[in-house]
């Protein structure tokens, strides 16, 4: 029979993840406090399959770097990983917008998109010495099955080629978004390691009990891979000030805290990353 402590060991995790680089406010990896007692993932935001020209247009899977590459360069990746053995770095695909317009997932065909995505992302991942990818498309010019096949085949190929060691998805509670990610999950969930569910996309002023209910609902959607999350820009969800860490302690006591992720380092810089420190201390303590 499983005792509480052994079930906790099976599902609680010390994983901390943070998006970085989307706001171009000169945040660097080295600005962010890193607790040696956690597994730390930086997630570069974003690589997008759009042109860098103005106005940007879709490129059918040919990805370009749209994060703050001056401050988050290949040499900076090399340095932060060299200085911290517990740090891995990933990149996120898509995001909400590109140069002020919605960034759409708009493949010409499954095969052409996958081919272009595999080659362009392999190049970026190797140039930056990255470890994984995150999928954060939020707007779609393709049906759920096309999205599922494109992303599923991309992740399968990159893993099969040894280019990445993990992959995550970043859905939120919106009918169109969920229909696409749940189609992907049903067909390719076995290839996906973490679900960065955007709990901060729920209403501002979310209560602890509401958050616990949302967490339960999304865990039933996406199995045991859902991470808890908050945003440091104050835009929505259960905030640290309103009890986020209380909720996380409850999840931990139930053996369900599979990690915490934060959007984003860019907005946390002005408060000295105190919630990042608090998150990591909670995860490292294991109780």
Keywords:
13 strands; disordered N terminus; two-stranded antiparallel sheet; globular; alpha/beta; nine-stranded mixed beta sheet; 287 residues
Account of the protein in words:
The chain has 287 residues and is of the alpha/beta class. The protein is 38% helix and 19% strand. It has 9 helices and 13 strands. The strands form 3 sheets. Strands 1, 2, 3, 4, 8, 10, 11, 12 and 13 form a 9-stranded mixed beta sheet that branches. The chain is globular and about 45 Å long. It starts with a helix and ends with a helix.
Quaternary structure classification:
single chain
Structural class: alpha/beta
Helix residue percentage: 25-40%
Number of strands: 13
The SSE string, one letter per element, is HEEEHEEEEHEEHEHEHEHEHH
Biggest sheet statistics:
9 strands, mixed
Uncertain segments: 1-10
CA(first)-CA(last) distance? 22 Å
SSE arrangement:
Layout: H1 4-11, E1 15-20, E2 39-48, E3 64-65, H2 74-83, E4 87-95, E5 97-98, E6 101-102, E7 104-105, H3 110-128, E8 132-137, E9 139-140, H4 144-160, E10 166-169, H5 175-188, E11 194-195, H6 208-222, E12 228-231, H7 244-253, E13 260-263, H8 265-268, H9 274-285
Parallel strand pairs: 1-2, 1-13, 2-4, 4-8, 7-9, 8-10, 10-11, 12-13
Antiparallel strand pairs: 2-3, 5-6
Helix pairs in contact: 3-4, 4-5, 6-7
Give a short synopsis of this structure.
This protein is of the alpha/beta class and 287 residues long. It is built from nine helices and 13 strands.
